[in-house]
Amino acid sequence: MKTVLLLTLSAAALWAQDRPIVLKTSTLFDGKGKTLRNTIIVVEGGKIARVGGAAPANAITYDLSALTVSPGWIDTHSHVSYHFDNHDRFGARDEPQPQAILHMADNLVRTLDAGFTTIQSPGAAVDKDLRDLTARGILPGPRILTSLQPLTETSGDPAKLRELVRQRKEQGADLIKIFASKSIREGGAITMTQDQLDAACGEAKTLGLRTIVHAHSAESAKAATLAGCTSIEHGAFVTDEVFDLMAKRGTYYDPNIGVVLQNYLENKPKYFGVGNYNEEGFAYMEKGLAITLDTFKKALTHKDLKIIYGTDATAGAHGQNYREFIVRVHDGGQDPMAALISATSLSAQSLNLGNEIGSIVPGMQADIVGFDGNPLTDVTASGRAVFVMKGGKVYENEQPGSKVGYRPSSKGSR
Ligand SMILES: [Zn+2]
Q1: Is 97 exposed, middle or buried, given 0-12, 13-18 or 19+ CB atoms closer than 10 A?
Q2: Tens digit of pLDDT for each residue in 312-339?
Q3: How far is the CA of 312 from the centre of ligand 1 (A)?
Q4: CA angle 318-276-130, nearest 5°?
Q5: I need a surface site. Which of 86, 204, 324, 353 has the fewest CB within 10 A?
Q6: 32-56: string of b/e by CB count within 10 Å (b at 16+)?
Q7: CA of residue 215 to ligand 1 center, whole Å
Q8: What confidence tens digit (pLDDT) does each residue in 336-362 have?
Q9: Rounded to 5, what percent of the chain is helix, strand, coil?
């Protein structure tokens, strides 16, 4: 009896997988700046087979014409393993491992449900397991790229840093994360020497790995840019001169202005007392809100600067990754289409995945999101992802009358 049931289920699964999927859309953003009207997306074998034309006869159809459809969004900087424990504390050392893992799974689901189909986590050792489990479809969650544990000025001299870069690659890292400045809670001054940065980013490049660099001060961002590193993270104090240099060198800028500091301040009691999460640190972060917004506005004036979409989401912020979009457009004055491109095709390009994800064109992974409302005309709609497909599989469909999902969901995460 059991065997029969299993066979029936797997046959049904195979049958469903073999059938093409048609997504009917009325407003479709391709992720590269184009808006398509009243068309269909045909998905086969987890990929986008074509856009437009007639629907195949045997297709499974999802009608998304009441929604606004875009490629799955990408968060280039999300610490998806960071969470609050059952006592609402961050970084508790006595937390039982099973509870920790479940909170991480919670974060993965929330992130995916919010329409983020790919994230880059910079980084923790556990990310590798989370990455591999989600890739196998065991855990629902976004595609994950991870640096594993980051490198800092205390990791060693240039020779040691090169060795560590090679070691990270062997351990399975997708990229290298480097800290070149202090935290914003400590003022953000440069910590690594030019020689250290040259060694780490140079070795990574030789191995075909990208490098993302935590750098708040202009000096640290400049040094990382000169070292040929791939992207500058945060960059709260970057100057026009350094933005010019980054634009010229093609260095990506990942500003993180709409989620991370807001989330720390909103959840102060849960962080307070851990490491540099003290009164001084929170005072810096309070001031940081206006500083990072101003720096972002400055960055926007550099037309050739490639501004990508990272949030630096930590505990409490997973599933709210869209708030970055709201702050960038509503408070920062970024053109909404430019912000959307940043969150899709441009971020994909920065991950060296421009030919895989981030746009709705034939051959790409079928990572597709439907919003209740149009984020370009109503920024709050970015927080209402109600249809989420990753790799051709529907993970969420909260439209009334649909079969997948439509459950009450609280958007706040631990
Ligand atoms: Zn971070």
Answers
A1: exposed
A2: 999 999 999 999 999 999 999 999 999 9
A3: 5
A4: 35
A5: 86
A6: beeebeebbbbbbeebbbebeeeeb
A7: 11
A8: 999 999 999 999 999 999 999 999 999
A9: 40, 20, 40
Residue type, position 412, single letter:
G
Phi first, then psi: give them for residue 178, nearest 5 degrees. -130, 135
What are the residues whose beta carbon lies below 5 Å from ligand 1 (ion)? 312
pLDDT band at 407 (very low <50, low <70, confident <90, very high): very low
On whether the CB atoms of residues 299 and 255 are closer than 8 A, the answer is yes
pTM of the model: 0.93
Q: What is the predicted pLDDT for the residue at 17? A: 59
Distance from the alpha carbon of residue 214 to the mean position of ligand 1, in angstroms: 7
pLDDT of residue 239: 98
CA 396 to centroid of chain Cα atoms: 18
* Phi, psi of 127, deg, nearest 5: -55, -30
Would you tell me how many other CB atoms lie within 10 Å of the CB of residue 233? 28
Residue 6: helix, strand or coil by DSSP? helix
What pLDDT does residue 7 have? Answer: 47
Ligand 1 centre distance from Cα of residue 114 (Å):
19
Residue 403's pLDDT band (boundaries 50, 70, 90)?
Answer: low
Q: Report whether 386 contacts 393 (CB < 8 A).
A: no
